[in-house]
DNA sequence: TTGAAAGCGCTAACAG
DNA sequence: CTGTTAGCGCTTTCAA
């Protein structure tokens, strides 16, 4: 059973192959007669014709493929998703792309392995990169000459479009909320603080909220590790061994918070009575936590959607308009913060 | 800046295009002289040549692409991942595929939308389908004539390879453990119980454990909904309104359990003192739960790895050897079960 | 408004 | 051991 190709359709419809191609791609704005279109479409349906995108890509230089790169955050770890955030984001990206007739080529990368080869080899029409990706590799990607969207990266380069959130402002809101609840000594717990990463911005937001309230940022109130549950536990340990100096913490990711809670609770520290916590992301996890997390909510689905939209818009327009898209944040109050009881 | 093609390499190396192709694909087992190989490889590197896979696919009918389909479980919901299980699995699939030089084409599907078109259009070399996918669509996929691996499906058809776990046995272990802890009245909570789905097997396992212990399976001890957090909450509600008849529950997915715990705890039902729970999957969530979940552990990473391996093996071998792969399960004891206090 | 013809970049017989 | 020669299935000038 041979695959039906454009020629078969052409024969069936009594037209030429190129005519079929025209009606299928509505190329030079509708220059095909309605009847012909009819006949062709009927033939297509009758034969169950499905175009061969490889052939199409070859001759048209468009692949209808969007490359999604989720860099391995923790080298050596085979899992790219230590964080449910990725799953939620990816879902939204996939969904949006599909709505527009695009498909997704999903990749991780090993430490330092470059993605350029994959992207070029497949001729992707655009690339979405989530999180931090080494600058050199990023630069190499420019040679692809397709739109590249950076999600949650502060790399400033006209060549890349970006989509992110008000990280600094969010962190400030979180910290301020803790301050408003009477906390004076507040820990900052995050994944690694990298150049151009989100955590550095969040740290800045934390600092500025502290300063605005006339509070000092103590060096030993800052905890930085990796974005995963395990680190949360480790941070709890560290917190205790440093002498439990703070009455509250701003944690930059829900996953870490989950670990932190566990680590603290195991040591009979009560949340929020003993330590209040404001978290960040509002993945579905945060409602599952016990206590449910007061956290900075970001619209992950929207982020994914915009990322795709950005790629598609850029792919359509001839010239390169550098675009930055910043999504708003809001504080969701649940049960992990309480007013600090006044002391002597 | 024109893309460098195989011809450029050929010229650079002073050989013909086909020779380049041969050394790049080591086609008819090493019939190229070492020196020529040398020269070609050098030219490849010097020019930074990257093959165009679209062209390659077109002429070789192999795409080095594996299609991964994650059917939308809850229609209308844009998210395919209401369950972290998928993220963990997908990570492992991506990683393994990449190790073998394959790329991943990731898709969801709308309700009833068929995947055949996508798969055919891209010429995927194999397909991995996770979870339940309507039988008719599944059948249509046979026409692709590429290996298809079903993950967690009990569809019996020589045409499909399958990879799964001992669902029935796992459920039995879970239930038996509850029984051993003195529980006589045990609820069964799961997602939708579909033909060929895993839940029906788990239900059978539950039933057989009950029967072996001489316990009746009460109709009102069975709860069935969707595989998500929200349903867990709903099930808790239902449990309470049905009069709180059971002292324990076997829940077929960690996500549901999370919701169930929350729903119960909000109503001042203590876990495990009032109700003991054994869960299923052992996604990383289960340690984050409060109390940490006693659950049936499955090796999700291994599942993903095997799925890819199955596709690749099948793609290589000429004839079709139907393969079934069943991964073992084990009970992980944490804190969500306690011995039933003897009553009257 | 439609068709003929020339590729897109690569692979795979088949010669030599 | 290597080069020649056809395509793979589709798009896209260019003519008609």
How is this structure best described in words?
The structure is a homodimer of 344-residue chains. By secondary structure, chain A is of the alpha/beta class. The first copy, chain A, contains 13 helices and twelve strands. Chain A has helices spanning 6-13, 17-25, 34-47, 53-60, 84-99, 116-122, 135-141, 167-180, 198-212, 229-241, 254-266, 285-288, 300-316, and strands at residues 65-71, 103-109, 126-130, 148-151, 161-165, 186-190, 222-224, 248-251, 276-281, 294-297, 324-327, 330-332. In chain A, strands 2-1-3-4-5-11 form a six-stranded parallel beta sheet, with helices on one face. In chain A, strand 1 (65-71), helix 5 and strand 2 (103-109) form a beta-alpha-beta unit. In chain A, helix 5 (84-99) crosses helix 13 (300-316) and helix 8 (167-180) packs parallel to helix 9 (198-212). The longest helix of chain A is centred in the last third of the chain and has 17 residues, at 300-316. The radius of gyration of chain A is 25 Å and the shape is elongated. The first copy, chain A, starts with 5 loop residues before the first helix and ends in a 12-residue tail after the last strand. The interface between A and B is large, with 51 and 52 residues. Strand 2 (103-109) of chain A pairs antiparallel with strand 2 of chain B, so a sheet runs across the interface. Chain A binds a DNA duplex (16 and 16 nucleotides) through helix 2 and helix 4.
């Amino acid at each position: 059973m041979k695959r039906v190709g454009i020629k078969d359709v052409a024969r069936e419809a009594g037209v030429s192959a190129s005519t079929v191609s025209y009606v299928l791609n509505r190329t030079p704005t509708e220059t095909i007669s309605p009847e012909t279109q009819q006949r062709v479409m009927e033939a297509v349906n009758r034969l169950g014709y499905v175009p061969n995108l490889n052939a199409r890509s070859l001759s048209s230089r468009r692949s209808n493929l969007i490359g999604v790169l989720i860099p391995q955050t923790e080298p050596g770890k085979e899992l790219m998703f230590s964080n449910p955030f990725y799953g939620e984001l990816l879902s939204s990206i996939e969904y949006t792309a599909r709505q527009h007739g695009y498909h997704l080529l999903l990749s991780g990368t090993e430490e330092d392995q470059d993605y350029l080869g994959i992207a070029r080899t497949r001729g992707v029409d655009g690339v979405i990169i989530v999180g931090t990706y080494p600058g050199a590799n990023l630069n190499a990607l420019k040679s692809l000459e397709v739109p590249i969207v950076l999600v949650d990266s502060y790399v400033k380069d006209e060549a890349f479009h970006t989509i992110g959130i008000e990280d600094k402002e969010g962190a400030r809101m979180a910290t301020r909320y803790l301050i408003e609840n009477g906390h004076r000594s507040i820990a900052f717990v995050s994944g690694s603080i990298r150049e151009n990463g989100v955590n550095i911005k969040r740290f800045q937001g934390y600092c500025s909220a502290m300063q605005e309230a006339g509070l000092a940022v103590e060096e030993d109130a800052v905890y930085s590790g990796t974005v995963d549950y395990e680190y949360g536990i480790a941070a709890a340990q560290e917190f205790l061994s440093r002498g439990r100096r703070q009455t509250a913490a701003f944690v930059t990711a829900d996953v870490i918070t989950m670990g932190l809670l566990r680590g603290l609770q195991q040591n009979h520290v009560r949340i929020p009575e003993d330590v209040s916590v404001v978290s960040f992301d509002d993945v579905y996890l945060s409602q599952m936590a016990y206590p449910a997390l007061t956290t900075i909510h970001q619209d992950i689905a929207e982020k994914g959607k915009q990322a795709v939209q950005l790629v598609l818009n850029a792919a359509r327009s001839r010239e390169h308009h550098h675009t930055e898209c910043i999504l708003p944040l809001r504080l969701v109050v649940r049960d992990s913060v309480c007013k600090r009881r006044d002391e002597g």
